[in-house]
Batch of 4 targets.
Target 1
Amino acid sequence: MNIIKIKDLSFSYDKVNVLENINLEIKKGDFLAIIGPNGGGKSTLLKLILKLKEPQKGSIEKSLKEESFGYVPQNTNLNIDFPITALEVVLMGHIGSKRKLFGYSKEDIACAMKSLEQVGMQEFAKSKIGNLSGGQRQRVFIARALCANPQVMLLDEPTASIDVKGQKEVYELLAKLNENITIVVVSHDISVLLNYAKSVAHVNKNLVYHKLDNVEKNIDDSEHLCEVELLSALGKKSSCGCNHGY
Ligand SMILES: Nc1ncnc2c1ncn2[C@@H]1O[C@H](COP(=O)(O)OP(=O)(O)OP(=O)(O)O)[C@@H](O)[C@H]1O
């Protein structure tokens, strides 16, 4: 079943075309990696899917209600020096949350604790967000999106500035969540990511889609291959725009 169907989509900022004739179908249960060079249009594509921007040409059809889509943005607007706990960060994402004068309801807190448990961070509920590692903090942001009970989760570079061990932990968590939730993740950590993804969309103004089912995915994540080399290792070709002759 298609959850998202993008047809002939184009988008420009101030007449500069960033996405051109994009076609993509995202199926229920997919784990889609969106990769591509800096400025290639990946974040813009996520924002269009989330209706944070409107396409100038083409269409995006969704078979689920808007509230079924959870979003973990690239730069969470949160000052990590602000003295807020992991639990409070998660509570901010609880859709039914009605902030009371003296705190949140028991149900809100139970729901937030459940989300923290899902990401393995329950024991850090009372820790200040600034005292957590990058990987732990990211898991808290994922818990915040989980609190709204999404069927699809879109994440924009969830492992930026996290070490390889932390990256793997985040992707392993996403793979576990993928048992019930469709995952769409923008990332530059492709050597790690491709070991978890079921399909990959390479975005550089245009979009090239590869299904990764039935492909040997034992990619050595200690090697830092470029996107074209990786896709080529998977037996695919890409038009990524690097100087590799494709
Ligand atoms: N609000 C904006 N106004 C004008 N131009 C923008 C705006 N947002 C992004 N752009 C431009 O659109 C292009 C695509 O940006 P986008 O953030 O979608 O790329 P990206 O693939 O996510 O990049 P990165 O990997 O660096 O995060 C870039 O050239 C960027 O400078």
Target 2
Amino acid sequence: MIKLEHVTKNYEGSGRHAVDGLDLDIENGTTVALIGPSGCGKTTTMRMINRLEQPSAGRVLVNGEDISGIDPRDLRRRIGYVIQQVGLFPHMTIERNVATVPRLLGWDKARTGRRIDELLDLVGLDPAVMRKRLPHELSGGQRQRVGFARALAADPEIMLMDEPFGAIDPITRVKLQDEFRLILKKVSKTVVMVTHDLDEAIKMGDRIAIMRDGRLLQYDTPQAILAKPADDFVRSFLGKDRAIKRLSLIEVESMMSPARENPKGATVYPGDSLHIALSTIIADDLEGVDVVTVDGHRVGYLSRDALFAAHTAAG
Ligand SMILES: Nc1ncnc2c1ncn2[C@@H]1O[C@H](COP(=O)(O)OP(=O)(O)OP(=O)(O)O)[C@@H](O)[C@H]1O
């Protein structure tokens, strides 16, 4: 677990707290997205976890150990770090970039080589094609994949990701978000990410921490935050479409009733979101939709009324 205990950060010469008495517990194996207006202290908070910044007061603990007692270089080898512009070494091949931390840790050539292949595969790049290339010979999305692979190289328990998809075009971004989320779950990392993108926070975060002026306004699951914003600021930050965002997190399967006798009309899949079901219902002005599996078996029905009830139940 990563634990921030009443952490405050004042930058020299600045009259205000960049981070102000922050308490935050991040469970192992979960992803927490830090979000809030520009200058609210997200990046500073994240950089205090790998000691790129030192707290002015308070403590940061990793698995119970106060990190102020750990050598920053040792600590950073235990913590993967992914940043917006990737930060690959431009004159080094992809394989050398990915091998940065293993080399620092003194791994032998064979072990490092195996790890490079394994990681490039994991992030969807063909090692045979990519190993000898230079960063400028890759697309922005491919470079981000390499940056991610490099951060995972020594299998760190924690990954810090600062606007990891900020410089990527919207279509590639959505694809990378989906892929990275699956990978992070598969390798079961504890992740802290900073983002400006609420949809990204909702998609990637098991929990979202909403900050303002260095303070934590709300810390909860995306569903809970969308259902019950802590105050008017959070409510307006989430936007007027927060009910729709919430429907996109709930699967049809969890709300459907048994299949009807004589169904006809539009269908959705059990794993579709209620947002998709709503869209289908509105598009064809229906009372409800049949729920079918990919191989065509009818397994349920979702009525318009049930859908609206689902929204108001926790909304
Ligand atoms: N190195 C620094 N020296 C002085 N002040 C700083 C420094 N880094 C950040 N700050 C200030 O601390 C506050 C928090 O900055 P931080 O970068 O943590 O916010 P942020 O939420 O990540 O912002 P953004 O979304 O714009 O990246 C801001 O007021 C910023 O101006």
Target 3
Amino acid sequence: MTRTSLSRFLIEQTRSHQTPAELRFLIEVVARACKMINHQVSKGALGGVLGSMGTENVQGEVQKKLDVLSNEILLEANEWGGHLAGMASEEMDNAYQIPGKYPKGSYLLVFDPLDGSSNIDVNVSVGTIFSVLRCPDRNGEEGDLGEEAFLQAGTEQVAAGYAIYGPQTMLVLTLGNGVKGFTLDSEMGSFILTHDNIRVPETTAEFAINMSNQRHWEAPVKRYVDELLQGQEGPLEKDYNMRWVAAMVADVHRILTRGGIFMYPRDAREPEKPGKLRLMYEANPMSFIIEQAGGVSTNGHQRIMDIQPESLHERVAVFLGSKDEVERITGYHSK
Ligand SMILES: O=P(O)(O)OC[C@H]1O[C@](O)(COP(=O)(O)O)[C@@H](O)[C@@H]1O
Ligand SMILES: [Mg+2]
Ligand SMILES: [Mg+2]
């Protein structure tokens, strides 16, 4: 059986003029960093990587040792590539400019270095989410690459992907022409194409939401979940199953594999925030992947990828997955 590695796949993309060489190189470097993170994650207690750092990130969340380590791995791997102008991460207060005169590379990389970090210490799947944007053209002007350069709608993404560190380590990638899944062959040290054309089934009987927040939800979400729970006897006339891994990567990966709807609505716990998940690091890359796989992604009111970000660490409500279900709950928001 001939196997297509991620490198081979990317080379073919460049040969057929679908992916610029610089972007190919950037994805290769990110994939290499994900392999290194995978290695650290898999060491667990043996590597002394479990537990908290005792610090907080810009969003006031306690940082795990692996949050910080994964962030450092991604920064270091990408710092000298020449293809990037800057990076932004869930774990850094401000955007990071590649040292040297601006502009340098053509792209910007944004990432959630370790998603689902509450799962680390209990040995459940975690992941890395990333998104690639073009660096705005500044006509050769020098100076700091400010936060504004990153504030681009999700529709501007040129690539997005995630790595999932689970029973198998996989890299799922879109370059804007469908979604491919690569499984890490750890003996060879390479990602091998195993899922050629990932598609989200249009209908589903599975949902994912943190039910413990039910009393804080807004009316449309309460109504929809109540209908799901009524099963056969309710208006949707079928029984639904529920799953919640508490790592967006793992929940989205399941939806890409067998359909479903993922929801993290805004709620009354922190009414001033539009949701928990981060627009730039989580919602936009996952929305790009889901849409490229034939699914739908909204914040209940509009397509997530159409939202114009106003700040780097902006949050957003998320409803994504199988078309019929996402359209139903989005419709409930307008009633
Ligand atoms: O614990 P909760 O509130 O259910 O939240 C789970 C959500 O939080 C997140 O873990 C946030 O990600 P981080 O671990 O990167 O902060 C999502 O992956 C997941 O969907
Ligand atoms: Mg996350
Ligand atoms: Mg994270």
Target 4
Amino acid sequence: MRIGILTGGGDCPGLNAVIRAVVRTAEGRYGSTVVGFRDGWRGLLEDRKIKLADDERTDRILTRGGTILGTARVNPDKLRAGLDQIRRTLDDNGIEALVPIGGEGTLTAANWLSEAGVPVVGVPKTIDNDIDCTDVTFGFDTALSVASDAIDRLHTTAESHQRVMLVEVMGRHAGWIALGSGLATGAHLTLVPEVPFDVGEVCDMIKKRFQRGDSHFICVVAEGATPIPESMTLREGGIDEFGHKIFTGVAQQLGEEIARRIGKETRTTVLGHVQRGGTPTPHDRVLATRFGVHAADAVHRGDFGQMVALHGTAIELVSLADATRRLKTVPPERYAEAAAFFG
Ligand SMILES: Nc1ncnc2c1ncn2[C@@H]1O[C@H](COP(=O)(O)OP(=O)(O)OP(=O)(O)O)[C@@H](O)[C@H]1O
Ligand SMILES: O=P(O)(O)OC[C@H]1O[C@](O)(CO)[C@@H](O)[C@@H]1O
Ligand SMILES: [Mg+2]
């Protein structure tokens, strides 16, 4: 059979490992052919593709970050308006099944296509780890490791200067990277999108720590964290053409507010896309590879409308409809564990 594959949304370490595993399993185990569509859904709308083969070139992408197919965002309304074009591209290329690899947006689109009758098996990716119905997504371990390494380094310089350091990590709707890297590095406070913060309480915590004679304060801030409305107002950034909120730098603004209120010297580091770039950790290579093998197997069994997911140590299938119903955010009990180390 001929299988189409694409990567959508932000890139993520491990995407190439999935592509390699799908190609190798489909070709080696079933004698199938895999066609890669370029730049996410845009490649399907514009019929831009490359034929992938189980050769040395594909074999060597296992450790490479990013995606050899390219990725892009397309306004959801434009994508939905292009259903006929997508069907034409699939027909013209003889594609009998599609494997979209992406975050909640890409998988929502995959579910919509599946409901429209396109045979689809989804693969969840995201450094944010916010996709429901899977224990974890690949990319998260790499991002956690990059963020933790950076925060370890900030501890020593903050200590030397007795400074308050704020580190902004990714996490638009969910604070998994912040929570994990805060715990892993012994941060003195972690702020996540799920729990609005009170600037007064943050300032009191910092003051108490320095009054006790401690030398520095590290605060990990997820990019999507917000203050409770009565405590501080963040600058508005509006919405981008794809419907995503444009952030204006919560850590920098909080740092300025702390300096103004309690006169402590603050410095802010925004880790940004460095968390998403580069080679995936061994953990992410293994998970991405296993997802790819199971996605190819599911396609050949005809298990469509499903997404591969990690449950414990097993890779299983869950329906795309279930997986995209809600985001997996940090539950209060997990935040409470981290809070034991605040202050
Ligand atoms: N509700 C929707 N209906 C149809 N298509 C959608 C929908 N939401 C998203 N998409 C499509 O999926 C693409 C990718 O979504 P999005 O930009 O949210 O990235 P993602 O896959 O969620 O990855 P990331 O983790 O980087 O956000 C969008 O650009 C759009 O084309
Ligand atoms: O800058 P971009 O590519 O639009 O994406 C940024 C977003 O993508 C993510 O990394 C998820 O992939 C978010 O954490 C972040 O807000
Ligand atoms: Mg998204």
